[in-house]
Amino acid sequence: TTNGLWGRGPIQVAKDNIGLGLAAEKFGAKFFKKGGNLKSVIETPGHLGDKEFREWKARWEEFYTGEMGDHVTPVLEYGMSYKALGIPPEAAQFLQTREFSITDVSRWFNLPPHMLHDLTRSTFSNIEHQDIQMVKYSLRPIVKRQENELESKLLLPKERGKLVIRYNMDALLRGDLASVTAHIKEMVLTGVYNPDEGRALLNKNPRPGGSEYYTPANIVGKNNNQSNGDK
What we know:
Layout: H1 10-13, H2 15-33, E1 40-43, H3 50-64, H4 66-69, E2 81-84, H5 94-108, H6 127-154, H7 170-173, H8 177-189, H9 195-201, H10 217-230
Antiparallel strand pairs: 1-2
Helix pairs in contact: 2-5, 8-9
């Protein structure tokens, strides 16, 4: 916001950065459409008369313009010489500009670059943590604001403090199957989840007896010893 009242979206704030990426994309499209040729001029050592110029121009347009002209080597007449005016893409860092545009957009929208299909710095070992960071630092603040707004608009005054509205983001925070399975196993064996709750996390149906909670043997033994001592 610039006045404390009206907010500005990322596109409004970052229009110059986004515009740079769009300009680079348009430049690339035009550059390759012209067969990779830069803007140029043809110089002559002397003056061409109107007749010579029209004849030369007609031959040039016939043989060297259009799609077919991109694959024909021009023959310069009247001592003409070719002079490029534009900057080569490598000198203008065309590829680097396009890559940095992705980083810019991901920065403005608070997204990890791999969510925009830029896997330059992503590996199998860090991409899972980048996903978790996206949920924690990108989605969670937005979700929290929505939860507060929904509670203020949908809950009656007497319901507030007793009922809450929460988005379930557990699925977005899941790791690979081995990690998820190990976590569920640990929670079930320690009695935090019952087997049916663990199965529900894997989208499995309940099973007979699955609603019972397990109690670890070391805790059972300790409780029994305490009970015997009390007696």
